[in-house]
Amino acid sequence: MATRLNYGKTFLLGFGFFGLSVVWGVYNAFVPIFLSEKFHLSPIIVGFFMTLDNIAALFIQPPVGAWSDRLRTPMGRRIPFLLIGAPITAVAFGLIPLPAALPLFVACTSTLLLSAALWRTPVIALMPDITPSAFRSQANGIINFMGGIGAIIALQTGGILYKMSPNFPFWLGSGLVLLSALAVYLFIEEPKEYSTEEQPGILASLREVFTNEDKSGIRILFAIFFWFIGFSAVDTFFTLYAKNHLGLHEGDGATLLSVLPLFFVLFAIPSGYIAGKIGRRNTISMGLMIITIILVLLYITPASALLTGIAPLPLVGIPLVEGGARMLTLAGVLLIFGGAGWAFININSLPMIVDLTSAARIGTFTGLYYLFSTFSAIVGPNVNGLAIQLTGDNYNVIMLIAPMFMLIALWLMLGVKRGEATR
Questions:
Q1: Contact present, 155 and 252 (Cβ < 8 Å)
Q2: Averaging pLDDT over each range in 203-212, 246-255, 266-275, which range is the top one?
Q3: Is the pLDDT score of 182 beyond 60?
Q4: Residue 345 falls within a domain, yes or no?
Q5: Highest mean pLDDT: which of 209-218, 239-248, 402-411?
Q6: Percentage of residues in the chain with pLDDT exceeding 70?
Q7: Number of folded domains that form the chain
Q8: What pTM does this model have?
C-alpha cells in the first residue's frame, strides 16, 4: 500500500479534466448567448437546449463507465476511450460558432455532446485506479485544481477573446483539448492487473445501492442530484443573469463568473486535506451551508450594490465604467466564498462514491456518480428556465430557487454513515 500521494502523476492526470473544463466553461458561458441572440430562442428553450449535454451524458457515461471496467486492451481499459473521443470533441467544438443556420449549429453541438460523453467517465475513473483510498480526496483536489484552471481560462481569457471574435474561445478550447488528451496518453500508465471479481452492470449496481440496508449510498447519490440542480442552473444562466439583472456585457459577465472557479481552484487542494482531518461528510456539509448563504445574499442584494467596487483586481475584475480599471465588486466577493464552498462539496463527493465499492467496480460507481449529477443538470436548467419565463424574464429568481436544493442536499448528507477514506 502506498504511503504518500504521487503528486506528479496526479497533476498529469489532471490535464484530462483540464481540457474538459475548458470546453464546458466556454460552452456554458457562450452557447446560451448564441441561442438567445443569434437564433432568438426563448429562455425556456435555451434552458432545454443547455440540458442536451447532460441528456447525452445520462445515457452514455454510466454504461461507458461499466464497460471500461470490463475492457481489456494493451493500452489499458480507460485510455482507448480518450483516444477515440477527444479528437472528435476538439473538431466539433471548434465548429460551433460558425453555422448561421440552427440545424447546422445543432449538428455541431450534438457531435460534441456525444463524443465528450464517451471519454469523460473513463478518464475520471483513472484517478481512483491509480490512487489509494486514503489519498483520493487529496488527489481529487489536485485534479479539480487543474479543472478549475481550465474553467478560469474558459471564462476569463474566453471573455476577452469573445470581445475580439466569438470564434476565438471555441478555437482555444479545441487546441487545449488535444493537448490535454495527449498529455494523459503519453504520461499516465494505468494498472494492467485486473481483479477477477464478478462485475455487475450499471443497473444491477444501482439496484444494489437502493436495496442495501445501510442507506448511505443512496443518500449520497440523491444529495449529489440536489446540489447539482442548484449549481448547474446558476452556472447555465449566469451570463444572462449578469447581462439582464446586473446590466453587464456578456464578456464581463463571464469574467465576473470566473472569480468562482478561481477560488474553487485555490480551495480545491486544501479541501481534500480538510476532509482528511474532519471527514468528507463534514466538509461537504460545511460547503453546502456556505454556498446556500451566498446564493441567498446574491438574491436579496440590489444589483447596484452587487456592482459596488471593492478593490482593483487586474485579472478577474470587471470595468465598472467604459475604459475604467478592472475592479473586484461585491458580487465578486460573494462568488469568492461560493468558490470555496463549492470546492468543499465537489472535491469530496466522488471519493465518497468510489469508496462504497471495490477497485474492480470503480468505473461503474463513477458512472453512478455521473448518472445522478447529469440527471440533475438536466432538471436544473429546465426548472430555472421555466421560473425565469414565468416571472417575466427575471433572471434573479435562479438565486432564490438554487439554495432550496442545497438545503435538501444538506439534510441528506447529515444521514450518511459510509464513504470516508479507508487506510
A1: no
A2: 266-275
A3: yes
A4: yes
A5: 402-411
A6: 94
A7: 1
A8: 0.76
Nearest one of 338, 9, 30, 42 to 169, comparing CA atoms: 30
> Which grid cell is 191?
494498472
Q: Would residue 418 count as lying in a domain?
A: no
Query: Would you place residue 238 in the very low, low, confident or very high pLDDT band (cuts 50, 70, 90)?
Result: confident
Phi-psi category of residue 101: left, alpha or beta, with phi > 0 → left and psi -120 to 50 → alpha: beta
Interacting residues of 74 by C-beta distance below 8 A, sequence separation 6+: none
pLDDT tens-place string over residues 71-114? 788 887 888 888 999 999 999 999 999 988 888 998 999 899 88
Give the sheet arrangement for strand 326-329, strand by strand.
Answer: 309-312, 326-329, 318-319
**How many CB atoms lie under 10 A from the CB of residue 278?**
11
CATH code at position 57: 1.20.1250.20
Please give the residue range of the domain that contains residue 382.
8-189+201-413
Question: Cα Rg for the chain, rounded, in angstroms?
Answer: 20
Total residue length of the chain: 423
Q: How far apart are CA 364 and CA 366, in angstroms?
A: 5
Residue 287 lies in a domain: yes
- Tell me whether residue 18 is in a domain: yes
Task: Compute the mean pLDDT over every residue in the chain, rounded to the nearest whole number.
Answer: 84
